[in-house]
Design goal:
Radius of gyration: 31 Å
Structural class: alpha/beta
Number of domains: 5
Largest sheet: 9 strands, mixed
Number of strands: 15
Helix content: 40-55%
């Protein structure tokens, strides 16, 4: 009664097999939806009738999985973390629940995060601007900068509210994980976070992220200045200058505000009141950085001068940091000159004219290899400035003195985990999906070996079909309903809990959907799928 072309789409001919489940799980982990996963699978097998099910079956499988997880997700996260902690010595996590037994705070780190922090934890960026779209919680990563100038992770947290209490809890637990607070923390301008840092990390310098502030300038300007490029240029010169003293900055700021009649603008007034939290002039005695995302270059760096000290720098610094050092060396030749030199007790004092930034004082004690500059670039960034390189060049020094080589920027300090440490970090437990993926790789390799050779392709296909028929007789393929626990473990790393100790994630707008038995089960599942909350029968 049904044509041969339509038979594959009949309900009794369709089912979500194990290979379908594997593809769907891969799609979930790669943030690919069931419809796109279905289309990818169709392209692999060739035609729709060879898929073995429909796109609706893929969607229903994903829907049923989400419904079955509903209400257990917070408990499953904690179970997963507990398993990680049991398997890995370096994994740590802390959580807090509210009066309704809902998970409202969670922080975690692992062994590599702690090692990163020990190497590169002088300055930490704490970004509280990421919202999770389903649970309405705030994702707050702790990030730093490694010796290649790349972002490196120190840990992460989830919080349900952006208030001082939540931030203080996270900061205190971070210190428990790491052993000490950083010297500098970079954050946005959240008032609750500002109070939390002052209370929990009183000895840590607090720096507002200048990128977040400068991005707001255009929207805070009066309409008559929004297209005034002159103001934006002058504003940038004032706030981004690394070499100015606080008094000079304040004088230039006041002049700029008066020139453009912004003295009564509340946002600019507030920014001036908070100037000690973001203007570089107030951080000259503190190690800091402004950019986290730099790409390390793998090629051998090109020399710009014939100085021995430049070649020496290229051998000790990572390529990314060498570019900054190289720029200082080059500008010591192109943009600096000496206006005066005199002796002060044992010091040789050099007054260096910087064509871009004014005059600076460099002190040099030859028998101690002591060098210092009033611009304080070495204190802030860990590399010597162009003014010191000018003095070094004039004194015919061939190498950078050892005391001024900051190890965190050197090639030799690169953080790496050996194979045994990685095994320990992973707890020696293989990924439960790795066995299935190995099957897929072997099949893919077979296709790659015979592609382009019709005779070998036909033989390979016959061999694979024979193997498939052999194991079809020996095995009993289980559907999702009979194998739900294994699907859970494949996807989430833990089995569905029989009893929940934590009710759910804490949401700022938590609610329940109450329905009656008269409403079909399918509609109940749809409500749960769309809202992400539980369905309660009356």
């Amino acid at each position: 009664m049904v044509s041969a072309a339509s038979r594959p789409f009949m309900k009794n001919k369709r089912k979500v097999s194990k290979i379908h489940e594997m593809f769907l799980i891969c799609g979930i982990k790669a943030s690919v939806g069931p419809m796109r996963t279905f289309r990818i699978y169709k392209e692999i097998v060739g035609t729709y009738d060879k898929v073995g099910c429909t796109s609706l079956d893929f969607k229903n499988w994903r829907r049923d999985l989400r419904v079955s997880v509903n209400g257990s997700d917070a408990h499953m996260v904690l179970d997963t973390f507990k398993n990680k902690k049991d398997a890995c010595d370096g994994f740590q996590y802390f959580y807090d629940i509210d009066g309704e037994n809902q998970l409202k705070r969670l922080i975690w780190t692992d062994k590599s995060s702690v090692m990163n922090y020990k190497m590169f934890g002088e300055a930490v960026s704490f970004d509280a601007t990421y919202n999770t779209n389903r649970y309405k919680m705030i994702f707050t990563p702790f990030t730093g900068r490694d010796n290649h100038g790349k972002s490196v992770s120190f840990g992460a947290a989830l919080i349900s509210h952006e208030d001082m209490e939540s931030y203080s809890w996270v900061l205190e637990k971070f210190v428990e994980c790491m052993g000490n607070a950083p010297r500098l923390i970079i954050t946005d301008q959240d008032p609750g976070l500002k109070k939390a840092v002052a209370a929990s990390w009183p000895n840590t310098r607090h720096h507002f992220c200048m990128w977040h502030i400068t991005m707001k300038v255009a929207e805070k300007l009066p309409s008559n200045l929004t297209k005034d490029s002159g103001f934006k240029t002058e504003f940038g010169k004032i706030v981004w200058c690394d070499f100015e003293e606080p008094d000079t900055f304040e004088e230039k700021w006041t002049t700029l505000m008066d020139e453009y009649d912004l003295g009564g603008n509340k946002w600019f007034s507030d920014m001036f009141e908070d100037r000690t939290f973001w203007i570089p002039a107030y951080f000259k005695d503190c190690y800091t950085y402004r950019k986290l995302n730099h790409e390390d270059e793998s090629e051998v760096p090109m020399m710009r001068t014939k100085l021995d000290i430049e070649e020496h720098a290229s051998k000790i610094y990572t390529n990314t940091m060498f570019k900054d050092v190289q720029e200082e060396i080059e500008w010591s030749i192109l943009g600096c000159g000496m206006t005066n030199m005199y002796s002060d007790e044992e010091d040789n004092v050099h007054i260096i004219r910087d064509n871009l930034n004014g005059e600076f004082t460099v002190r040099y004690v030859k028998h101690e290899d002591y060098l210092s500059c009033s611009c304080k670039l070495f204190i802030r960034k860990g590399i010597l400035c162009r003014h010191i390189f000018f003095v070094i060049r004039n004194n015919d020094m061939k190498k950078i003195p050892e005391k001024y080589i900051c190890s965190r920027w050197c090639k030799s300090s690169r953080l790496s985990l050996c194979g045994t440490e990685l095994e320990e970090h992973n707890g020696g437990h293989p990924n439960p999906m790795s066995h299935s993926f190995h099957f897929f790789k072997v099949a893919s390799d077979c296709i790659a070996h015979v592609k382009g050779n019709d005779q070998l392709s036909d033989q390979c296909l016959l061999d694979l079909e024979a193997v498939s028929q052999k194991y079809a007789k020996l095995s009993n393929t289980h559907s999702l309903t009979n194998n739900k626990e294994s699907v859970f473990e494949d996807l989430y790393g833990c089995a569905p809990p029989e009893k929940r100790s934590v009710a759910a994630f804490c949401r700022e707008t938590a609610f329940e959907v109450v329905v009656t038995d008269a409403i079909p089960a399918r509609l109940q599942r749809l409500v749960a799928f769309k809202t992400g909350v539980g369905v309660v029968r009356s």
